[in-house]
Every structure is written in structure tokens, then in C-alpha cells.
């Protein structure tokens, strides 16, 4: 598999990356090497191999939810840079 400079330029544009011509040539070569390696992996016979999401067996490490006493409001607000005695005051994010 091969990738062209035009394709790298297009992906860089989508990612809002500004690449110099030298960076573009370097990135094209690096991506071409990666894609060639991935293409080589497709030559492997995977018949009978079960699909997996992880190389190692993993289980969910979450615990069950438990009701527990919470921190009192005044104690939680004690170290806040700004509060109004009810809640934290934070900058508006739009």
C-alpha cells in the first residue's frame, strides 16, 4: 500500500496541521512505511482465530455503587477559590 503526498496533505488539512514541504515529504515516507507494515500483516492466516479487543484477558475493575456519606458542603467549599456558600463559582465556558 502506498500513500501519496496529496493524501497526506489532505489529512493534514483535516487535522488542521500546517506542514512544511520537508515535513510533508518526511510524513509521507513515515506513513508509507507504517501502511506497508499493516498491509504485510493482512497476509497472515487468521482463519479460526477468535476476534479479541485486547491481547490479554481483562475484566472490568469497577466496583458496585454503594451509598456512603458525602463530604459536608461547607467543608467541600472551604478550599474553593470562589464560592457563593452553595456552590463553586467557575468561569463560564461557551
Automatic annotation (TrEMBL):
Its EC number is 6.3.5.-. It holds the Pfam family GatC. It catalyses: L-glutamyl-tRNA(Gln) + L-glutamine + ATP + H2O = L-glutaminyl-tRNA(Gln) + L-glutamate + ADP + phosphate + H(+); L-aspartyl-tRNA(Asn) + L-glutamine + ATP + H2O = L-asparaginyl-tRNA(Asn) + L-glutamate + ADP + phosphate + 2 H(+). Keywords: ATP-binding, Ligase, Nucleotide-binding, Protein biosynthesis. Gene3D superfamilies: Glu-tRNAGln amidotransferase C subunit, N-terminal domain (1.10.20.60). It is an enzyme of class 6 (ligase). InterPro entries: Asp/Glu-ADT_sf_sub_c, GatC. Signal peptide: none annotated. NCBIfam families: gatC (TIGR00135). Heterotrimer of A, B and C subunits. HAMAP family: GatC (MF_00122). Belongs to the GatC family. Allows the formation of correctly charged Asn-tRNA(Asn) or Gln-tRNA(Gln) through the transamidation of misacylated Asp-tRNA(Asn) or Glu-tRNA(Gln) in organisms which lack either or both of asparaginyl-tRNA or glutaminyl-tRNA synthetases. The reaction takes place in the presence of glutamine and ATP through an activated phospho-Asp-tRNA(Asn) or phospho-Glu-tRNA(Gln). This is Aspartyl/glutamyl-tRNA(Asn/Gln) amidotransferase subunit C. It comes from Desulfofustis limnaeus. The gene is gatC.
